[in-house]
UniProtKB/TrEMBL annotation:
Record GO terms (molecular function): DNA binding; sigma factor activity
Listed SUPFAM superfamilies: Sigma2 domain of RNA polymerase sigma factors, Sigma3 and sigma4 domains of RNA polymerase sigma factors
Statement: the UniProt record of this protein carries the keyword DNA-binding: yes
Domain RNA polymerase sigma factor 70 region 4 type: 112-163
Species assigned in the record: Streptomyces curacoi
Family membership: Belongs to the sigma-70 factor family. ECF subfamily.
NCBIfam families: SigE-fam_strep, sigma70-ECF
Protein name: RNA polymerase subunit sigma-24
Length: 179
């Protein structure tokens, strides 16, 4: 019995180490704050650890964990009934692509994008982050959000339309960033 528990603990630890940067990035994009993202990932992993036997044997454990995280985020948001605040700091996030070029321009672009995401309603923000930032399919996004593919399409389209309506953000995209 102890060997099986140790094997499960090792498997869980490997999962967490391998997925931590991606989970943190998703949580940060959902919450808009570094500390809130850390809390969200931590509470998600606590829930997942308790059920790791079931989660670890799932077809796609990462999708299962993402769903738990989105549900936890939705519960927190419903409880607080408040709008998202603009992100304050993303300096602790692991970068997937090394930064090159104009660092000030990149920081301003990133800040503008994160501020724009913070203005979206929760479901639209979730759909945009999962579909376009995490590059999930519509079906994977629907599974993660616990809704239909049509709801994902609708929320993503509305979210993108709101992002396009933000003047500074639209100029960044159409002119290829800062000049």
């Amino acid at each position: 019995m102890g060997d099986r528990k140790a094997a499960r603990d090792t498997e869980f630890q490997s999962f967490v180490i391998g997925r931590w940067p991606r989970l943190m990035r998703t949580a940060f994009l959902l919450t808009g704050e570094q500390h809130a993202a850390e809390d969200l990932v931590q509470s998600t992993l606590e829930q997942v650890y308790v059920a790791w036997r079931r989660v670890g044997s799932a077809d796609d454990p990462e999708a299962y964990v993402r769903r738990v995280m989105i549900n936890a985020h939705a519960r927190r948001h419903r409880r607080r009934l408040r709008e998202f605040l603009a992100p304050k700091d993303d300096s602790g996030l692991v970068r997937e692509v090394p930064d090159t070029g104009d660092r000030i321009g990149q920081a301003e672009d990133r800040s503008a994008l994160l501020s724009a995401l913070a203005q979206l309603p929760t479901r639209q923000r979730e759909a945009v982050v999962l579909r376009y930032w995490e590059d999930l399919t519509e079906t994977q996004t629907a599974e993660a959000m616990g809704c239909s593919v049509g709801a994902v399409k609708s929320n993503a389209a509305k979210g993108i339309a709101k992002l396009r309506a933000i003047p500074g953000l639209a100029e960044m995209v159409t002119h290829g960033g800062r000049q």
